[in-house]
Amino acid sequence: MPPPITLLTDFGDRDGYVGVMKGIIAGICPAGPVIDLSHNIPPQNLAAARFTLLNAAPYFPAGTVHVVVVDPGVGTARRAIALQLPQGYLVGPDNGVLSGVFDRVSPADIKAVELTEPKYWRSPQPSPTFHGRDIFAPVAAHLAAGVALTALGDSLDPQTLTRIAIPPAEITTEQIIGSIQHSDHFGNLITTIPAAAIADQTWVMQVGAVEIPVGKAYGEVELGHAIALVGSHGWVEIAVNSSSAQARLRLVIGDEVRLMATT
Amino acid sequence: MPPPITLLTDFGDRDGYVGVMKGIIAGICPAGPVIDLSHNIPPQNLAAARFTLLNAAPYFPAGTVHVVVVDPGVGTARRAIALQLPQGYLVGPDNGVLSGVFDRVSPADIKAVELTEPKYWRSPQPSPTFHGRDIFAPVAAHLAAGVALTALGDSLDPQTLTRIAIPPAEITTEQIIGSIQHSDHFGNLITTIPAAAIADQTWVMQVGAVEIPVGKAYGEVELGHAIALVGSHGWVEIAVNSSSAQARLRLVIGDEVRLMATT
Amino acid sequence: MPPPITLLTDFGDRDGYVGVMKGIIAGICPAGPVIDLSHNIPPQNLAAARFTLLNAAPYFPAGTVHVVVVDPGVGTARRAIALQLPQGYLVGPDNGVLSGVFDRVSPADIKAVELTEPKYWRSPQPSPTFHGRDIFAPVAAHLAAGVALTALGDSLDPQTLTRIAIPPAEITTEQIIGSIQHSDHFGNLITTIPAAAIADQTWVMQVGAVEIPVGKAYGEVELGHAIALVGSHGWVEIAVNSSSAQARLRLVIGDEVRLMATT
User: Fold this and answer.
1) Is the whole-model pTM more than 0.90?
2) Domain chopping of chain A, boundaries
3) Residues of chain A below pLDDT 70
4) Which residue of chain B comes nearest to C11, CA vs CA?
5) Which one of C13, C39, C219 has the shortest CB-CB distance to A76?
6) How far apart are CA B45 and CA B72, in angstroms?
7) Which CATH fold topology does C170-261 show?
8) Cβ neighbours for C68, distance < 8 A, ≥ 6 positions apart
9) Whether A218 and B31 lie within 8 Å, measured CB to CB
10) Angle between the N-to-C axes of helices C17-28 and C137-144, in degrees from 0 to 180, rounded to the nearest 10
11) CATH code of the domain made up of A5-160
């Protein structure tokens, strides 16, 4: 059975664009599952696409083909790429959306190609506005069906790939300074502080003048109260029990948060 | 071929949380269909989740595994459960979201377990905030792949399961008093009055000072006019032809409606 | 392996209606992929459903079964129909939603039936409000599973099918007058001017007093500037680089646009 193909786009859910990509895939590799990560990435928001893929990819079986189509440069000189990593494949534009995943892999373990072989596209003349349909979906389906990465185009040096850099948290034994990197559907605020950084000590969070306790589960604080905890992504996040931390604290992406050691 | 797995959550469609659950399922039981019931249950709204599952489950083939993750108590002492009914399986938190379905089954026909066997989880240390990914999705995939319910944990007495009670309609031959229990995407207002209650007589509906005719199809009244009819769920509902009854009548969940016999 | 079944509805993504249709399909034809085109067609908007199906259908493999349930006349005398075309099947109400696809096929190549054979329905007494569940989904699943079209009901003359007519663009060598027929998730404004009409000359677009250059890719104009180009659907569309043409130009469906020859 072919591996899963995942789709992550900013196409929304009103038009038939996502369905069309699945139609193309069904014509090439009908037997494998096609799984939506999200189609509601804010239009052209490369950082949100990077974050979503980075946090979802580890939960998929080996060999999965992840396709990202958040692509403001479609039709210009930006490269279309496919990567083979130990855990599976990445397909999309070379604009940084894939970099959250491949930056965690040693360059020696990455094979990369520019998609230059029209034989694996929908047609040799792709639409200059919809490479998702004409290049990325058919290429992903061919990969899932067993075509070798190297057949898809010219080899690329992984060092030349476009990256989106997120400033890492500053970590000492007394304090950790990070920032908000994402706000999810529940209004949870996910920071740039990794779980491992807080494992050996106890902490309290400071956000401006507000102190927030650090715990393990939403229910440790009363309804409507804020708590900082290690979220399911493996980052420290701020939540409000049965409500929205974003609505309560009015923080935006990039705002600073601090953890102060209490022991 | 494995039976379908359905997913019903309040995760929304912006983040990758639902995709991650499907990734976990694809790693355990790749061949069966995974079907979304809804991911737009209002956050933590147990009654809406219960209603949606109750009205969808009867249309699925025998053996289907229904997973519900509307779970404000995640990480606290609330139990994680799986049930085997004659028509299939239910997996989710023991907070009442599954009760609309299992309350229609004789307790003698229900097998229930608490999910205490980490062997069928994603890891022995599940995230305290995302049991959907770490417990419910893998357990559902193992059930679909053929693992026996009793392998998943300790047996439970079905009488101890948490229920959400909806006040039943008061039914006499002259009048029926019910209430609004749900409002759907079209603005149709679904009441607590079951279809069978109105089968043998003719009725008119009273909502406050407004009289609404009782009929069979939206098109029996003029565009923009209200009609009460038996909806596809098997409940009496109020609709407005080509418009929204909710917007027109401004009723909310719990508001009283009356049917008066006219014969 | 069975062909794909696609679903296009105005059911939204809050309720379980779409999931229920997939449950019915899974009980009849579990092995084939079921692909969502959109469930966010504006309620009862036949023109938007017609446009979405017309632009998606060409990208699906031969034999695909397309189901449309945008059906304000459900429960009235409007016919339920299924069509067999050289490229696949169409199933839905006879209200024009299917006409964008079948109007591009010679009537001699269309086989049409009215769905009158309850044997292929969910039950002989379908709900008067949800033919998607009780008639269209099971009929589509039976077609995908190999039942012949002619078994589903009485033959129809394709000339009698309901059509939605869109006024074609007026095309001369000096100017082309068309109109806006759709606005997508990105705010791109899709006109009624087909790609072939502009192939042999160079043009400039006039929208009221505004002149818009005609090009090939979004990135040919500066951020925030408008461009007219051939969109991925094969129609001339108006886009704004990295923003929304609809928000900028405030055009609505039906508004006139002109192309003036510049050579």
Assistant:
1) yes
2) 5-160, 170-261
3) none
4) B185
5) C219
6) 9
7) Elongation Factor Tu (Ef-tu); domain 3 (2.40.30)
8) C8, C9, C49, C53, C90, C91, C92, C93, C97, C98
9) no
10) 30
11) 3.40.50.10790
